[in-house]
Structure formats: structure tokens, C-alpha cells
Design brief:
The chain is α+β, with helices and mostly antiparallel strands. It has one domain (2-156): NADH Oxidase. Helices cover 30% and strands 15% of the residues. The protein has helices spanning 2-14, 48-53, 60-86, 112-118, 166-170; strands at residues 19-24, 38-45, 91-93, 123-124, 130-131, 139-146. The strands form two sheets. A four-stranded antiparallel β-sheet has the order 1-2-6-3, with helices on both faces. Strands 4-5 form a two-stranded antiparallel sheet.
Length: 191
Amino acid sequence: MNHLSSGLRSNLLERGASLVGFADLKDFPAKDRMDFAYGVSIAVAIRPDIIRGIENGPTLAYYEEYVRLNEQLNSLAEYTADYLKGHGFEAIPQTTTRVVQDRNALRTPLPHKTVATRAGLGWIGKCALLVTKSFGSALRFTSVLTNAPLPAGIPVNASSCGTCTRCREACPGKAVKGINWSPELGSVNLV
């Protein structure tokens, strides 16, 4: 499986992914993971100039980047599913066009953030966004559910925010409560 996972990771990074991780999802209800035991988490970083431009709220450039990233993530997820199927496994990309349950909120049966934390890519910050050591929270995610027994990363089960309050101080709506995340708490209670 190391050859499969290293080949997939390498191909995804060449196609524009910023981070790739593999998750063991067997602890979650079968219906939430569509009966698949593993997941692939794929992230693409938001351009730094776009992040700097939204200090006072969303902009047209941010919206265009959001649309571009969603298209890129859908493409990467479809590629991942095809790659795994080509190696004899089943896979379902959790794209906006395939498995989104709520088109208004763009929700998938198993949240992308959950797959990412289980893959060890990052933690949920006090702002309810997924935070990574490499990119902070300036990322967009997608995920693919599969039966391919990919070597899983070490799940992140606690926040690394500690006493940091930067997101709380930066939030113009003062919505961030400043609570450290844990899987039991969930992200709904953070904002």
C-alpha cells in the first residue's frame, strides 16, 4: 500500500494539492462514511494575496478564488477516485456535485475537516476552521472515501491553539468564543 499511497500523494501534489493525508475512518458510523473504512484528505492553499485582501470582508477576488478552488478540489477528488479505481479499489469523491447533502451549506455526509483531522493534517481552531502548521487556516479541503487500506496518519484529537487568541481578536463579528476544540466538543460550539 505504500507504493499506492506515495504514488497518489505525489500525483496530487503535482496537480496542485498543497497537503494530502490518509485517514482510518472505521470509528465513524458506516452510514456517515458510506460504508468505506478509509479516506483521503486533499487541501489546496488559498493565495496569500487573497487572504490579505479580505481583512475588511469578502471581495470579488476572494469569491473568484473560492470558485476556482472548489473547481480544482472537485477535479483533484475525481482524479483520486479514478486513480484508486484504476488500482482495483472502490472510491467516492465527496465533491459538490456528487454527495453534497445540503446545497446551501455545501455539507457532505462526513465533513472534510473530520477526514483531515483523522489524517493528521491539522486541528480545528477556536474559529471552527481547520488549522495546519504549514498554512494556518488559509486552505480549502475535499475528501474521498475508499476501501483502499491506505496508511493512515496519526489522528489529531486536540487543539494546538492553547492560549492563542489571534482569530478571536481578528473576527469582525466577534463570533469566536475562544474555546479549544476537541473531537467530543465538535466545531459547532466554537462560534
